[in-house]
Every structure is written in structure tokens, then in C-alpha cells.
Amino acid sequence: RMSEVNKQTAQKCAKIAAGAVVCVESEIRGDVTIGARTVVHPKARIIAEAGPIIIGEGNLIEEQALIINSYPENIMPDTEGVEPKVMTVGTNNVFEVGCVSQALKIGDNNVIESKADLGRNVILTSGCIVGACCQVNTCEAVPENTVIYGSNCIRRVQTEKPQPQTLQLDFLMKILPNYHHLKKTVKGSTTPVRN
Amino acid sequence: MASLLQPNRVVYLVCGEKKIRSPLSQLYFCRYCSELRSLECVSHEVDSHYCPSCLENMPSAEAKLKKNRCANCFDCPCCMHTLSTRATNIPAPLPDDPTKTAMKKAYYLACGFCRWTSRDVGMADKSVEIIYQEGQPDRVLVFFHVTQEKYGLGTRLQRQRSGAPISSLAGLSLKEGEDQKEINIEPAQALDEVEPLPEDCYTRPISLPEVTTLRQRLLQPDFQPAGASQLHPKHKHLLMKRSLRCRKCEHNLSKPEFNPTSIKFKIQLVAVSYIPEVRIMSIPNLRYMKESQVLLTLTNPVETITHVTLVACEEGDSDDINSTAKVIVPTKELVLAGKDAAAEYDELAEPQDFQDDPDVVAFRKSNKIGFFIKVIPQKEEDEDVTVSFKIRHDFRNLAAPIRPSEESAEAVPEAIWLTHHVELSLGPLAN
Predict the structure, then answer these.
(1) What does this protein do (chain A) (predicted)?
(2) Which tens digit of pLDDT belongs to each residue from B278-304?
(3) Three-state SS at B121
(4) Do B280 and B195 fall into the same domain?
């Protein structure tokens, strides 16, 4: 698996920090950086097509979640002069099962619930919760602590940000290595995942 | 095609106080009057109250006292979802030794859908798991009570009138011994001087998250808060189980079980278990003024053999207002075998020998037959082709008392013949 990735240039392989738990069944393509204490479940997909993806610490990316930095619709992959844009994801975010995120900037402590769909031009600040099955493809920076819910994507502001999933992350970091092989970063000495 | 099986394709006519056309699955059959009944010609009575989230049963008197609301469950004032109780650990000083702190559990209400919490409105976390709403005076109820007394709707006797809509306030009767006194409500006075608007009314920026929607506001009619920080959770409304009663013979048609977790019925006199059901199986291309053959199925719900005759509607039939096509129904009597629940397991069963005419009966399968009718659309417009006919079948009333006859020891109830008017919607003309 890692040898296949080595075929590409050094820029295009995944850099997984020590302390991150990335299951081998997940699909990570392109230049992806994953921070410490982040858990990537099997069948999650992180695809850096049109530019690199940098994921911070303490994130929880569940099964069938898709984080993709793709080309905008009207631009062909071979067009010259297109700058690769970096997609950043902050700390303590939760990407629940089946969500799709193409947002270029995601802050901290956000929760993207199951089957939610974020467009490329949305910027999530911090403490935002995008409800299940909500599609947000506006061109805006969602204010802090906003909750988007309901079939009409109505919004309200909550008074406190969502709790970081530290308990869940600790549990998963203990249990997942018992059942799955983990991806480790290629360069440098491979530090064993702490149990 | 699944759309042919939609319930509103085949409707039966109910001759009650009003003529109602409804699919058989939504009708009831009074086997004492031997007539079809719809929801509009029966009286609805409340059987029991229960909370939809904790499924707790509540006797009617207690429900009335608690204003038809559950004591344990709450609704989110923001999205009306059910609130759940969450616990946090907070350090709190021990009662014995104020210098030491121990982790104590504090409970608050939270909504899983819109993420509203009781902390948003300033409700403090409680140390008891069940959070009771502080008593708030129910101004709405006082108003209703007053109007009722004024207009004399308070007595229970008025509710016995079958068929009259039962007002939910009819149960609020006065206690014995109290006089019905007239309370005068003063009409609202129109004033010249009104409170002036605040000065920064035009310049102050609106904070939209703080403004409540009309729905959120009107769900709390006594306070109708305009600000989201005043939206308090309300106790959950109870739902009720109802029983239906035929208005003519006062027998129960539908009586559910008392237990809220049970979906069964004590009495369930639904039409599909007594009346043969007509369903559409396949429709060819229908063309204006051209005869086509439509395949229908007829299912026998009872365990005895049923004989069914179809009769086309006569000219000038007052029930026949919707049909847009002429229909030619089979003239011979159709025989339906009884429903035998064990038939699929009984390998030695003799195949039924009914000698069906292949021009009329397409297939036969246990208690169901497929038969053809000929349809000639008469109108060229775009609307659905509708046909109607009468279906006449024999019905054995097992509920009626059996008169013992001298000849046979085993008395079989006499069969009576029932006729129903059926309308089928066959879809648009093919182009």
C-alpha cells in the first residue's frame, strides 16, 4: 500500500502524524496531512485532487465520509494556470457517517452530521453544526455557533459550542487498532501508535 | 405497476348521512346493520390517553387535571422535538465538609435535532433527574372556562348527543354544588393613546436569531414570547386512542387495546375482513370509443365460499355521477373460494374445481380470482377514465343469533345479499 503511494512524487503522499489513528481501509489520495489524535475510520475517503488537504488534530472522520478537494465544475483538470488551493480543516471537528465536505476552510469544533453536504464556497468558522441531510452550498462564512437543521436548513444560534468528542476519540484510539491495521506515515522513523 | 394498487384507485360508496366514496381499506362494516360505515358516519369516542414518548397511560381524569400533558416529557420550544435529559459532572461542595468538592451530577434538557438546551433560556441545571416545570398560571385555560360558562356548554349531558362534534372543553364541568355564575367579560376598549415606540426602533440592528417564529410563539399562547431567550420548554401533549361506534345501532366498530404499546384491537370490524375487495391488476391502452379489456382481481376475505355478481349501473342511477366510460361486466356469477390460512401448508388438498369460463376468469388462486371487464371510454378529455358498477355478494352474518332449525343440528346462518357501488379510476387515455 505504501509502496504504491511511493510511486508518486514526495509531495503527493499522505503525511500522517504520530498519534493519529488512520485505518488502512480508508482511502487517502493525494497530498493529505493528518494531525495527531485524529481518527479516520475505515471506508472514509480523503481525496486531494485539485490541491492539498491539511487536517488538524483531534478530528473524528467516520465511515463513508468524503472530504474532497476537487476541481470546480467549470474547470478541467488540465487547464493551465490554475493554482492548487489548499483545503484546511481545523481541530476537534466531527465528520459523521456519510457526509460530504468540499468546503475549503473548516475551523474548530464543528460537527457535520450524517449525509450533510457542504459546497466548495462555504467557510465554517467554529462551533457550527450542519444538521443531517442539510445541503449548504452558499457562498458565505457561516457565523460561529450556528446550527443548521431541518429539511429547509433553517438556522439558529446556540449559546455554547458543541462538546469536543474526547471520550469517543480516546475510546476509538484504543479499540480500532485491535481490529484494523493502521496506515503509518512514510517518511522518518515510524513511531508505534500509542495504546 | 405499483400505481395500480394505490388505495384510491378503487372506491366504494357508503350511503350514510352523506354519500362518501372511500377505499375499502378505510371503511368499517357494521355487521349488525350489515352496512358499510365511513369515518364520517360513526361517532368517535376517546378511549384512553397516553404520552407518545414515554408511552405512559393516563386515566382521563388525571389527563384533564394535567391539561392533557405528560408530566415527565418535554417538547423543544424551538423545533417541537422531544427533549432528552443529559447529565454533566460538576464539582460541588460536599454537604458535610464544605472545603472538599466532589463530582455531582447535574441534569439539563437538550434537543437532539436543533441542539437547543435548557441552559439557553437560563434554566439552571437540576440535581434531580426528572425536571419538573415550575408551575405557571395557565391563563388560556381560565379564559376557556369562562367562555364556556357564559355560553352554557359546561354540562356533560350535552355530550351524549351522538354525532355532534365533541369539544375538548366539554369535559370541563363544574363541580357539584358550585353555581353556574355568569362572568361578565368586558369588551376591549379602544384607546387613543398607545405606548410610543422605542427611540432606537429604526437604528437598532435586528438580531434575527433572537426573534421567535410565529409557530414557536403561538405554541405558547399564554405568553407568546417574542424573544428566543424566553422560550421555555412545554410539557408534551398527550395523544389518545379512540373507539368508533355505529350511530344507528350503537355497537362498537373499533375498540383498541388499553395498553399504549399494543397496536391490536379488541374489536376490529373493518370492511376488508367482510367485503370482497376489487383491485386493478392490469390496464391496456385505453382509446376513445374503443373497447378494451381490463383485468381486475376479486379477493374473498371470509372463510366460506362467496358468490359475487357484478351488475352494470343503469341509466339514470343517482350514484353514478363520476363514470366516463361504459363498462360491460361478466354476466355469470363468480364463485370465490373461502380464505384458508392453512392452504399453503396442506399438500394433500384437492385442487378446487370451479369450471371457470376462460373468457371471464383469467386465473384463480386460493381465495382470489382475476376476471375481465370491457371498458369503452366515452369522453375524449384529458381526465381519468372512470367506470362504476355494482357488486352483489352473499354475506353470512355470524354475529346474528342463530335460530335453531329442526332439520340440522349444526345451524348455518342464513345468507343475505349485499350490494355495493364500486368506482374504479383507470387512468388517462393512451395517446
Answers:
(1) Part of the dynactin complex that activates the molecular motor dynein for ultra-processive transport along microtubules.
(2) 999 999 998 899 999 999 999 999 988
(3) helix
(4) no
- Measured CA distances, B137 to B132, B134, B142, B235 (Å): 15, 10, 9, 14
Which residues does chain B have within 8 Å of residue A158's beta carbon, measured at their own beta carbons?
Answer: 115-117, 120
Q: Are A118 and A130 in contact (CB under 8 A)?
A: yes
pTM: predicted TM-score of the whole model, two decimal places: 0.71
Q: Grid cell 369450471 — which residue?
A: B355
CA separation for the pair B291, B19 (Å, rounded)? 30
Best CA proximity match to A142, nearest among A164, A166, A118: A118
Is there a domain that residue B96 lies in? yes
pLDDT, tens digit, 9 for 90 and up, residues B55-110: 988 888 888 888 888 888 899 988 889 999 888 877 766 667 667 667 778 888 88
ipTM: 0.77
- Residue A164 with chain B: CB contacts under 8 Å: none
Closest Cα partner for B74 from B87, B83, B66? B83
DSSP letter for A91, please. S
- Let me know whether B175 and B286 are in one domain: no
Together in a domain, B293 and B424: yes
Q: Find the domain containing B190 and state its range.
A: 69-237
- Across the interface, whether the CB atoms of B117 and A131 are under 8 A apart is answered no
Neighbours of A130 (CB within 10 A): 27
| Structural domains of chain A, with CATH | 14-183 (2.160.10.10)
Judgement on whether residues B75 and B215 belong to the same structural domain of the protein:
yes
Residue B366 maps to a domain: yes
Block residue for cell numbers 460541588: B92
Q: How many CB pairs under 8 A join A and B?
A: 29
Q: Do B120 and A159 touch (CB under 8 A)?
A: yes
CB contacts, 8 Å: B209 with chain A: 155-157
Last residue of a domain, one of B177, B209, B237: B237
Q: Are β-strands A21-22 and A39-40 bridged in parallel, bridged antiparallel, or unpaired?
A: parallel
* Contact assessment for residue A150 and residue A169, using Cβ atoms and an 8 Å cutoff: no
Quote the CA–CA distance of A27 and A38 in Å, as a whole number: 15
> Could you tell me if B233 and B102 lie in one domain?
yes
Among B207, B222, B237, residue at a domain's last position? B237
Domains in chain B: how many in total?
2
Sorted by sequence, the CB contacts under 8 Å of residue B376 that are 6+ apart come out as B289, B290, B291, B292, B325, B326, B327, B328
- The closest CB to that of A159, out of B79, B114, B119, belongs to B119
